[in-house]
Amino acid sequence: MQELHFAVPMAGAILCTFNTRHDSTMIATLLTHSETKILFVDHQFLHTALAALNLLKPPHTKPPLIVTITYEGTPPQSELNTNAYHQYESLIEGGVSGFNVVRPTDEWDPISLNYTSGTTSRPKGVVYSHRGAYLNSIATVFMHGMGARTTYLWTVPMFHCNGWCVTWGLAAIGGTNICIRRCDPKDIFDNIDLHKVTHMGGAPTVLNMIVNSPVTERKPLPHKVEIMTGGAPPPPLILSKMEELGFGVSHLYGLTETYGPGTLCLWKPEWDSLPTEERLKLKTRQGVRHLGLDSVDVKDPITMESVECDGKAMGEVMFRGNTVMSGYLKDTKATEEAFAGGWFRSGDLAVKHPDGYIEVKDRSKDIIISGGENISTVEVETVIYSHPAVLEVAVVARPDNHWGQTPCAFVKLKDGFSVDGQEIIDYCRNRMPRYMAPKTVIFEDLPRTSTGKVQKFLLREKAKALGSIS
Predict the structure, then answer these.
(1) 3-state secondary structure of 53
(2) Which of 167, 265, 280, 356 has the most CB atoms at less than 10 Å from its CB?
């Protein structure tokens, strides 16, 4: 994948990385929508790819040429249900050493296509330009404090926003890639120890996995390992435990539509002397724009006026600049809606503090309105996360005939712990306004998308089916 991030654009083609967790039906949908001509497949996912090809509908969709990346245990060629079959290494060996790079005719030409976590019926293909990818690659390297001796451990998938553009940025500084086949705490600690890893990245779910790993799977870090986290506001408790293990955590924020990272909670030296709880709370802010982005702001989605910098007035996070997508492939309507008013609308609700740092409170569709009060599910989840028995939590709205909506918490407990719903409710009531505390607690595994995000729409459906609590 790392090689293809360079080879595909250099051949004048567009890179489109598919999520390895997708099933054959989704892969078939994306192959059709993207009009893929060549499909590179690791042998581990060959069965899924072949099943996807069987779902394509000729002559409307021409099956792509397949190139397999083979290792020991790869099925023989006879098992491939395709006439166009090549092996990756053979393809490379047959290359022309004097090949002239096919450079873009314009810096706004597309370099890659990335699909968001959507439904099979309406995938959103986000188009990246050469200019945007270049700028975000450099910005990410600066944000993460990388240098020529950087050794980067890949736990952020390269199919996700082109690895937050680190795929290109790491090569620009001459860094070293360490790749693992699965995101497993033991593999993470083993590789950090073996390769003296200096930097890595990971969503809060990865951080949660690391801090809750068995002590027997851990190894002392050879030095402080800098880790970037983003995707959802990380709970302060998780940040604290990561620091105790020897990681230096920096928090960034962005979307697929912003090439991954768009802002960083740029750390201020004076914050080091603050009490731990206050310091960790500051670190969960989404912060300020990076050097490659023109503008980020929190605006009223109707009037497009900027909200007050008081840490209270809420609006929608909006972006503008070269590191914002060119648009959604074959979806003019969705593109126009996303850029209504001249800014890219993130769909995230946030406040802006007096120092200009933004803090995301919730997704606009996730906010709970109870008795006329807005409740941030992120704030409720943060409190529940701090309970020693809780491994994962997601909070959604449950309908209520009297209050309109009330918080409903879906909780997964750590192994060996046993608590009831009332204990979680009481724990919250002792730590936040009573109206914000959940009135319902359900213990179960959380459903996730192929990119690891909690599927809150499924949880909302479950909560809705429960009916009113009062």
Answers:
(1) helix
(2) 167
pLDDT tens-digit readout, 296-335? 999 999 999 999 999 999 999 999 999 999 999 999 999 9
Q: Is residue 116 part of a domain?
A: no
Predicted local confidence at residue 76, as pLDDT: 57
Cα-flanking dihedrals φ and ψ of residue 398, to 5°? -110, 135
The amino acid sitting at 212 is: N
Q: How many domains does the chain have?
A: 3
Q: Where are the alpha helices (DSSP H) in 13-158?
A: 24-34, 46-55, 88-93, 130-143
The rounded distance, in Å, linking the Cα atoms of 456 and 94 is 48
Considering the domain boundaries, does residue 117 fall inside one? no
The number of helices, as runs of H, and strands, as runs of E, in the chain is 15, 23
- Note whether residue 52 is domain-resident: yes
Cα separation values, 360 from 21, 160, 238, 289, Å: 28, 21, 18, 14
* Confidence grade of residue 77 (pLDDT, cut at 50, 70, 90): low
Rounded CA-CA distance 299/296 in Å is: 10
Assign residue 375 the CATH number of its domain: 3.30.300.30
Which residues, in sequence order, are CB contacts of 144 under 8 Å at separation 6+? Answer: 166, 199, 201, 226, 228, 250
Same-domain check for residues 373 and 359:
no
Out of 363, 392, 411, pick the residue that ends a domain: 363
Range of the domain at 329: 131-363
216 token code pair: 């027997």
In a domain, 309, yes or no: yes
This prediction has a pTM of 0.84
